[in-house]
Specification:
The protein has about 260 residues and is mostly helical. It contains four helices and five strands, in the order αβββαββαα. Helix content is about 70%, strand content about 10%. The strands form two sheets. A three-stranded antiparallel beta sheet has the order 1-2-3. The radius of gyration is 47 Å and the shape is rod-shaped. The model is unreliable at about 1-25 (pLDDT under 50).
């Protein structure tokens, strides 16, 4: 009986071994369906893992090579770096553009301020008779009127000094003339200070405007250079992401 059934058993074993191995090998190919996520298998020189193929829209589980999985991770990392770089650089350029625009607004405001110098009313002094404030329209007129006023008071001061030192001037008159000269000197000092302060306004605006224009030029140069560099770097990084995607698609090709 043993001799009769032994060949049959041996034949069954041989048939089982001969059929199971090829079927298993054929089933584990890239793109072939699998059931357990994360399951691993080996066929020939390739190692596989059961998961979604990253290159297709379908969500079913399939066998993919570990090279495919690695290439997919590399692509995602490279794409993330590319997107992050583009976002950060865009934000940086936006800030630089805003700074340039801010300085351009400063120039506009300074130009308006400079133009207003010749339309503003400037209080100069109180008229002793009318008790009304004497005003001048425009800074040029104000400076001219103050200059004239200073000349008038200077002449009065010089006359008072001459009277106080003239021969025959009584002691009391000398004291009065000296006091008047001192008062005139104080007035001259006040009007001169006011005039000089007004004279500085225009040049100060011009200086501030020149500085703002210089700042705009510097920042615009930096902006242009940054934009140019960004374009180059963005292209390089984007090309890297594109190459990573091509390698992923190649590594994840069905049938491997």
């Amino acid at each position: 009986m043993l001799k009769k059934f032994a060949p049959i058993g041996l034949m069954a074993i041989v048939l089982f071994a001969g059929v199971a191995s090829p079927v298993h090998a054929a089933a584990v190919k890239q793109g072939a369906a699998c059931t357990k996520s994360g399951a691993k298998a080996t066929s020939g020189k390739n190692k596989y893992v059961c998961q979604k193929n990253p290159t297709v829209a379908a969500t079913k589980l399939v066998w993919i090579t570990t090279d495919c999985a690695t290439a997919a991770k590399t692509y995602l990392s490279t794409k993330k770096d590319s997107d992050t770089f583009a976002t950060e650089q865009s934000a940086a350029l936006t800030k630089m553009k805003a700074s340039v625009a801010s300085w351009q607004n400063v120039v506009v405001l300074l130009d308006q301020k400079k133009a207003a110098l010749e339309t503003n009313l400037y209080p100069l002094w109180t008229d002793p008779t009318t008790k009304q404030m004497v005003k001048a329209q425009g800074i040029t007129a104000a400076i001219a009127q103050l200059t004239t006023k200073i000349a008038e008071i200077t002449a009065k001061r010089d006359n008072a000094v001459a009277k106080s030192t003239a021969a025959g001037t009584s002691v009391s008159d000398k004291a009065n003339w000296t006091k008047a000269a001192s008062s005139y000197t104080t007035s001259i000092s006040t009007y001169t200070r006011n005039r000089d302060n007004l004279a500085k306004v225009g040049p100060k605006i011009d200086s501030d405007r020149a500085r703002a224009v210089s700042q705009i030029g510097t920042m615009q140069t930096q902006l242009d250079a940054s934009a140019s560099a960004q374009d180059t770097l963005t292209t390089q990084i984007s090309n890297g992401a594109t190459q990573a995607m091509k390698y992923r698609d190649l590594a994840c090709k069905a049938g491997i």
